[in-house]
Design brief:
Strand content: 5-15%
Strand order of the largest sheet: 2-4-3
Organism: Streptomyces demainii
Mean pLDDT: 95
Number of domains: 2
Helix content: 55-70%
Order of helices and strands: HEHHHHHHHEEEHHEHHHHHHHHH
Protein name: DUF885 domain-containing protein
Length: 407
């Protein structure tokens, strides 16, 4: 690495760290996963806070002086533009949410037609056990029938998650890419947080999947969650990119992971596809039935887990539409009615969704789920599906790259 490249990467990391410090101070939530040199993080933490307008100028300077080969410069430019867009928001500029999402996520964000949700509801109707009540009532009943009793969570859930981690790791290694044999993934039960589950890579081949015990745990969703957060989802991506990009190629920018960015849109898209990549057709349901559900006295009910989860993925588009409504200033009552009608949420789920779409930065991040999933759905529909997943886990790709290849 040349001295010019090293200096550029240092300034890139400092921009991300300074911006994250400002966002954290103003909104309370982080927008950065940082595992780079500690002297850079110490500098950003101890110096006088940088004004947002100066951070915009710093981003512009980085964009003018990209010293890398074209494909890498193109990737890094999208990351800097994402940071610049957030800095502009911090500086008081108000971009319309679709424009803001385009700058941050590198995707075109449109209103998702309700016709798609109607079609998804019809598929869900066929996938759930027959019963009385509304479709939402039947979905809630299906979830309740597969929920691990609260009194058994602390004793049983970490063991169940560990079993699922072992299976998803084995399948990822066998079908997509070999994983480090000494990698470890722990399960930690948490409370008082907004997420259902979250995978965190801590470095040194050690990771943790955090499970929110405030939310009832639906065992039918076990592989859907563990594959998303673990393998071949977020943890696998962090571990493999550290090995392939940082250790082998010296790409220190991979240790500076800005979360409102094109790479995270693809990461969340991969997470939503992760279960079906490893367990096509009804394989997830068969594994869960044999290895988890029967042992927890949950009997087969004729439902179709794979369809339920595919519908769940598509209904992230409801969240995206709700974020657009929130950005347009529509009242909570309208957003709640929309989420109840199309996402089939109960009052507790609606309240959690409203907190997310109205939280600073989360409107953009939420859009990344549906549009990342949408882009990958077309791109992964290919005979070399597993090779493409391997690329997602080891290369710095952009949504525009995949859309161009699909076209």
């Amino acid at each position: 690495m040349t001295a010019i490249e090293q200096e550029w990467l240092r300034n890139y990391a400092l921009l991300a760290l300074r911006l994250n410090r400002q966002v954290t101070a103003s909104a309370g939530g982080t927008v950065l996963i940082y595992q780079g040199p500690q002297e850079w993080s110490r500098q950003a933490a101890t110096e006088a806070p940088r004004p947002a307008g100066q951070l915009v100028e710093d981003a512009d300077q980085l964009l003018e002086e990209l010293p890398f080969e074209p494909s890498r410069s193109r990737y890094l430019a999208t990351q800097v533009r994402a940071m610049r867009a957030v800095a502009r928001q911090q500086n008081g500029e108000e971009l319309p949410l679709p424009d803001y999402a385009r700058e941050c996520l590198g995707v075109e964000v449109d209103w998702v037609p309700e016709l798609l949700f109607e079609q998804a509801h019809a598929r869900l109707d066929a996938a759930l056990p027959a019963g009385g009540g509304s479709l939402a009532d039947r979905l809630n009943a299906w979830q309740a029938a597969h929920t691990l009793p609260a009194e058994r969570i602390e004793q049983r859930l970490p063991t169940i998650v560990a079993k699922a981690v072992a299976e998803t790791r084995a399948r990822t290694s066998a079908t997509i890419i070999p994983l480090p044999p000494d990698e470890t993934v722990d399960c930690k039960l948490v409370a008082g947080t907004h997420f259902w589950g979250a995978g965190a890579y801590e470095g040194g081949l050690k990771s943790t999947i955090h499970i929110n015990i405030d939310i009832p745990f639906n065992l039918a969703d076990l592989l859907y969650l563990v594959a998303h957060e673990g393998h071949p989802g977020h943890i696998a991506e962090a571990v493999l990119k550290e090995s392939h990009l940082v250790d082998r190629q010296g790409r220190l920018d991979q240790q500076v992971r800005f979360m409102l960015s094109p790479s995270f849109a693809l990461g969340e898209g991969l997470g939503l596809h992760a279960e079906s990549i490893l367990f096509p057709d009804d394989q997830a349901q068969a594994w869960l039935t044999d290895n988890v559900l029967i042992g927890e006295d949950i009997q087969p009910d004729g439902s179709d887990f794979a369809t339920v989860h595919d519908v769940k993925n598509l209904l992230w588009g409801v969240w995206g539409n709700a974020a657009l409504l929130a950005a347009a200033g529509r009242p909570d009552s309208e957003l709640a009615a929309y989420l109840t009608r199309w996402a089939l949420y109960d009052e507790v789920e609606v309240a959690a969704a409203l907190n997310s779409v109205r939280a600073p930065g989360m409107g953009v991040y939420v859009l990344g789920y549906y549009h990342g999933w949408r882009i990958l759905r077309s791109w992964l529909d290919s005979p070399d599906r597993h090779q493409r997943v391997r690329r997602l886990l080891t290369e710095q790709l952009l949504p525009a790259d995949l859309e161009a290849e699909t076209a």
